[in-house]
Write a structure and sequence with these properties.
Chain lengths: ~375, ~130
């Protein structure tokens, strides 16, 4: 396998971008990454997108986006793994470069979610659950994560306030990210008084509906060094699946796919968690971040709530989690999220993260998750 | 919503709560599968789900997906039945305030939703406190 580097990153302001179509959002972002990389050709493209079919009535994104970018006949693939589509796209691009199949690969993620109503978007996202045995009974994603929260609170005594503290922390980080959809601070009282979505989760426990894209350019690390670019290598990559239906899990409070994917990525990188300086993780709901910190091994099982309360995962804590603002504040255009996590880590490792910079960061980890943890993708990055 | 063929295909599970019991290890799979998730064997005999179970978790859906827009708010939960099967369904005939982990429930055959404009009515199972 060849060593793989990220030599270009691109991201535009996320939000409710009513004036822009899926193809425009993607193309503007991809151009930023290609420009940042300083390359004039790409050999291949991989795009993560969860559900352009349900959100904008358009499939066959591989061809559409290569065409819009003016890059036909370059080979292109669209990959889907629900909310981890972006992370999976990065993994596929990594495999393509590492294997020697392609040299310069553009990896993008995109989702255009505001062309449909809120109920339609809730339905589209719900297709990441088991449609025949969860969706059929009226389950939604907030509903599924709410059931994980109830189980976690019952078993470990995790409190309603600790859930709120995750959102407060991530908004505090997001207030320093000019590309975030909601770059402002919120308070614990604000979360606790926001409208209920699925008890005990309130609207400020939930990541938003977002239009957005993110892109990176990969190439062999040897090529990156010759180009005299700041080299950030992908040193670990792990992926795992778990049961589709939440009910089938052995333990409703545990994310096994994240645990296994992280173990594989750390083994490939030959690193331990305390050698990693920042973590961008999948906080689609506040309870998710608490459970992810446990599954990664940052804290013991059941201690995720306490960890956020004690500041362990704060920007200046021992394990900074979601310095970008996370899905909660930055936004969650589902197919783009996994790629945007990589964009943030590369900016941090290059020292280009502005007001939210983690000082001296050398290594970062991303964790991107589909459904209720039915799939997880973990990557580890290292600056040279 | 699903076409009638999909709905028809699922009738054994929705109406009769039919599961598959693995001939090799005795594990009950619901819905029935081709491969036993417990031991990998491929032969099953039909078995009816246990009637009763215990609620493992629950929530109240306040923001519903499109097909359930006229039903919200409604409670849903995951219960472990007395035969070891865990499944998800609505919890009905129950005040929201009475929902708790450990609540005893039984499976009942109920109407779930319906298509508009002379479409089919969807039936299935729901949890009811014992």
């Amino acid at each position: 396998m060849r060593d793989v580097a990220i030599i270009g990153v691109g991201m535009t302001k996320w939000g409710e971008l009513w004036e822009k179509s899926l193809r425009t959002i993607f193309t503007e972002t991809a151009l930023l990454a290609i420009e940042d990389a300083g390359v004039d050709k790409i050999d291949s493209m991989v795009v993560g997108c969860m559900s352009s079919g349900l959100f904008v009535g358009q499939e066959h994104l591989s061809s559409l986006l290569a065409d819009e970018l003016g890059r036909t006949p370059v080979p292109a693939a669209r990959v889907e793994s629900a909310c981890s589509s972006g992370g999976l796209a990065l993994r596929q691009g990594f495999i393509e470069v590492a294997s020697g199949m392609s040299d310069i690969v553009l990896v993008g993620g995109v989702e255009k979610m505001t062309d449909v109503t809120g109920c339609e978007a809730t339905y589209a996202l719900g297709t990441a659950a088991d449609q025949e045995y969860e969706g059929y009974h009226g389950l939604t994603f907030p509903g599924l994560y709410a059931m994980m929260a109830v189980a976690h609170m019952h078993r470990y005594g995790t409190t309603r306030e600790q859930l709120a503290m995750v959102a407060v922390k991530n908004h505090d980080n997001g207030s320093r990210n000019p590309l975030a959809q909601f770059p402002f601070k919120i308070t614990v009282d604000g979360v606790l008084n926001s409208v209920l979505v699925a008890d005990p989760l309130r609207i400020l426990d939930c990541s938003p509906i977002t239009d957005g894209a993110a892109a990176v350019v990969l190439c062999p690390a040897d090529m990156a060094r010759k180009m005299k670019k700041p080299v950030v290598r992908i040193v670990g990559c792990g992926q795992a699946t778990d049961t589709m239906a939440l009910a089938s899990r052995k333990d409703l409070t545990w994310l096994e796919s994240t645990h296994i994917a992280a173990g594989k990525a750390l083994a490939m990188a030959g690193r331990k968690l305390d050698e990693i300086d920042l973590f961008e993780v999948h906080d689609c709901f506040t309870i998710a971040e608490i459970m992810v910190t446990e599954a990664l091994g940052l804290v013991e099982r059941g201690r995720g709530g306490k960890a956020v309360e004690e500041g362990l995962t704060a920007r200046d804590g021992r394990f900074p989690v979601n310095p970008s603002g996370g899905l909660k504040a930055k936004g969650h255009p589902v197919g783009a999220t996994g790629v945007a996590q990589a964009v943030e880590v590369v900016k941090q490792l290059r020292g280009e993260a502005g007001e939210r910079q983690i000082k001296g960061a050398r290594r970062g980890l991303t964790q991107n998750m589909g459904g209720t943890g039915g799939s997880s993708v973990v990557h580890i990055f290292e600056a040279e | 919503m699903p076409t009638p063929s999909r709905y028809w295909r699922e009738i054994p599970q929705r109406y009769r709560m039919e599961a598959g019991k693995c001939k090799a290890c005795g594990a009950v799979a619901f819905p029935p599968r081709v491969v036993c998730p417990a031991c990998g064997a491929r032969e099953f005999v039909p078995a009816k789900l246990a009637d009763g179970g215990t609620l493992l978790t629950y929530t109240i859906i306040r923001v519903p997906p499109q097909p359930f827009e006229d039903q919200a708010p409604y409670a849903v939960g995951i219960a472990e039945l007395d035969d070891g099967v865990k499944l998800t369904a609505q919890v009905v005939d129950c005040d929201f305030a009475d929902l708790k982990v450990g609540l005893r429930v039984r499976l009942e055959f109920r109407k779930l939703s319906e298509d508009g404009e002379a479409g089919v009515i969807y039936y299935g199972y729901k949890f009811v406190p014992e």
